[in-house]
Amino acid sequence: MEVGNDNILELHYYFADSSHEIDALIRNKCESELLAIAYEAASIFDIGLKLVTKPSEEGGFKEFWRALGENSQQLQVLLVAIGVVTTVYFNYNPEDEQRKKTLEELQIQELKLRLKNLDTATETEKQDVAEAMANKLSKNLKVTKRKSNFYFHLSRYPKVSFISISAIAGTNRLRDEVKLSRSEFKKFILSSDKLKIQEDDSAEIEIISPVLKDGNYKWKGVYKGQPISFSMIDNKFRDAIFIDGLNFHAGTSIRCLLQIHREIDEVGEVKIKGYSVPTVIEILDGPTARKTKQGAEYLHAKGMIDNQIDLFS
Asked: Which pLDDT tens digit goes with each residue over 11-49?
């Protein structure tokens, strides 16, 4: 891949008309998202990167960023990976189990080692490294969200009919140009920012402020040393308060199934949006632990499911 002195990331907008002008706000928004992807990718693979702007060109409208860093070959592979991850659709589940996430981390570490030995790699091996990097980048929430933002902005600007994002060394493209049509933009746009609800089925919450009257009021408690507000949606537990006169004292805690509601923000950071408790398993009052009926039913059902999983695995 070592072809010339300048390593360039090119963003080419193809227009539906013969003009060579682009809306400045759209351009700046798209540029911001693509640069964020580039720097996130460099951070993940420990590659020193600084992008500087070169003069744009006509032909639709072309943006150029010159990539500066200590290792030219690493920069070239990185730019190819950025071009792949931003123009090739990867299907993945952001809620993969921890075992798969651990495997991904190990594979990223392996790629970092391969990046350090590019001097002896063939051109085919370098392309393989770039595509493997793109595959890993596609599973990064920040990259995914930024890419979604990029195509969302473009989808609202009908003048753009195609785009391509390419890596160039000197005067040579490091990979054949891939032109992405406008009809494909929607594949990259997230339909929702909400993530799968995370559950902790042995959560212990010290009750600070129970809600002792009917209504959709938030309870307050301490979970893992942090104060939280949560919705108590265990109706049987609420009935025990209102009908049976269940009492709370200083230090009373509950062991419960806690649901953690999450979503990703505009830059791909995971944010907790709220907590809810659908099942109270035990009430802990000093040394005394009282298991609830619904808690016993929940544990029994969970045990049955766990046994089935063990049997088939």
From this structure: 999 999 988 999 999 999 999 999 999 999 999 999 999
